[in-house]
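Lab notebook, bench 4. Still working through the backlog of constructs that have no structural model yet. Next entry is a single chain of 450 residues. Request: give me the structure tokens for it.
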Amino acid sequence: MSVFEFELRRMFSGKANNLSLLVFLLSGLLAIYLGALNYDRQMQDQQNTALIFDKEKEQISGAAHIPEVGSLAYYASVPTQWQLSPWAALFSGQSQYRLTAMRLQALALQGQIYGRELINPARSRAGGFDLGFVLAYLLPILIGIVTVSLLSEERQSGRWRMLNALSAHTGARLIIRALLLRFALIALLVCLLFAVAAVVVGLPLDGLFVAFIGISLLYCLLWFLIAGLIISLNRDSLYNNLAFLSVWLVLAVLLPGLVHLQQSRSFDAQLPLKAAVEQRLVMNNGWDQDMHQALVDFAEHYPQFTEQLDFSGRFHWKWYFAMQHLSDQAVEDKWQAYLMEHQARDRQLDKISLLSPSLLLQRYLYAMAGTDSQAYFAYLQQISDFHRQLREFVYPYLFADRQMGADDFNTFPAFVAKPTAQYPLPLMLVLIVIGLTGLLSWRFRRLAKV
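Model written out:
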């Protein structure tokens, strides 16, 4: 029997190893299935919102009389979409908490962004069940189960002394060979999950596909190195298992939890809510104030309409949309403060994530999939830019008291989604792996002398 066959049988002889491999595989398949369902639902929502708007445009364009501009701008809801790649099915990130298809009106922006969230953005957290969760948190457990008892089992069986009696490095070489075999098998299992995901989700087999596999295997190697360092301590199985579990709890659970707790206390996540509430109050209070003065204030932002502010009667759409814009401007400082806090929070998280390989992996995966917080705020910036385009399309008709014709209405602005993914190099992960490899090499040279 070859050494390879011996190690293979040894790996699959234990019930704990087989059960762990099965649980990991089933968890990965379940994450892929649920992610595919959620992604299909998101894509269907985006298609439905676009289809509804197209039907509304067709109905209005074909009508004998197009509604007045103010009424049209009030009710017209233009669909916007967060352009998600198929990778969002596997690494959902912020997309599992945020609206990915929002209909936008020419009204105040703040109330629309926050008021239409299905879930309060302040409650968003990393760590939902997706393939990223399986890789970041369950993969290390599997690695620990199949590796950390290798040396202690050799010692208990009496083979360790016999191997070292043959040569000073024979025992250490066999342990390294066993680790490499287990790494190859688990790496094959990870690649199998990606292959299944490619079929189920329809992932393109391009360079990005290779990059996702590469960073996942790099993370896998990191935990094998941690397991190897624990093995090199030359202690019994109970100690090794407790040591690995403790390392996993600290790096994968405790540190990320402390990071989120610290950030929730350091940064005010309620700023969007405060801005939305204040915007609504400013708008409501405007009904009891001088409407003409509101229009004068609006003309400071759009001086081209200074000569077109007059209206007759107690209400006019000019004032209404001018007041909507002014209510947005009244809370602009709060919104900008929130964006600045978000940037500061993300920079801080970049630094702190170096302490947790699990957190670091998730940040890489979500950034590459275009579902991290940076990608979501890029989508919000696209919405903000389009909202300005939408308002400024309506204003010339509104302030000139000019009716919109069918041809004019057919030129109504359409939202064009842009990719939001980033492709950071996993430099820190590579450096950590290199450092652990050097440390493990030194430890195994010492182990050979035992």
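Notes after review: The mean pLDDT is 85. Residues 146 and 412 are 61 Å apart (CA to CA). Flag for follow-up if needed.
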